[in-house]
Known about the structure:
alpha+beta
Amino acid sequence: DDAEIRSRIYGVPGALAKRSVFDRVAVHEMELTMIRSPIAVELEGTWNTEVQVIKNDDGPLNIFEPPEIDGFYIIGCDVAQGLGREVGEGGEAKDSDYSCATVLKVPDLKVVAQYHSWINPVDFGTELTKLGKLYNMGWLVVERNGPGSGTIFTIRNIGYYNLFREVSDITQSEFVQDFVFGVDTNIRTKSTMVAYLQRVIREKQITIPCGATIEELQAFGEELTPSGMNTRLRGAMGAHDDRVMSLVFAVYVALAYSLFDYSLPKAQNREIQRKQENPIWAGLHQEIARDEKA
């Protein structure tokens, strides 16, 4: 294909994965429009007070686009253990697993910010509430497997309310929410989630200005298990895939649990959203008024 021609003939670095999951040409085109020097910051404060954005070249949060007043955001969160790490000769973290949160603006399907750091699950939960507050109380979609349970517990304990809870089974005829928060990743669900991101990349419906994420997309592939009976999706040759998976969670929720009709113009979606929300807020105000009278 064209990506292989560019790699072999013109010397353009090709994807690391032998069996690339994502369209290599579409991913390469993203490199032409990526933001090479995003604003690096750290967040101070708490989610229920004012969150301050402090510019820091070594900060864990890269901002590609600041939050809009009426913007709607979904934040996909891939959680790592973050409890121990190998230290290199220069004192830097070596081959560590990182936790990552990707902020996706909807219905635009545009990556506007990304938090990426070596951090333990409990502290990551605290950081996520601040990030959510910054992006208009964004919808936090946290992987609940393994260390993710600690992150979810922290978010709930702090009191951040906009936390994703999936349905028991997306194929069931009636909408029934699961009893637990977060998104579950396993052999059955992971391929479905990745397929949503695969489609929007192939059809060029998503904007990804983050160079590090683009690199991980190029290295993300399908591999046979040692038995040869199954396949698994991950970064090739031990490459990190935390940025990819956090984006996978955000895109999956944006499309599978769609609050918007992505075929409609942005202004129409906002009007639909207002019509859906107004009765909800009216009901809440009536409830508060009844409580005050009681």
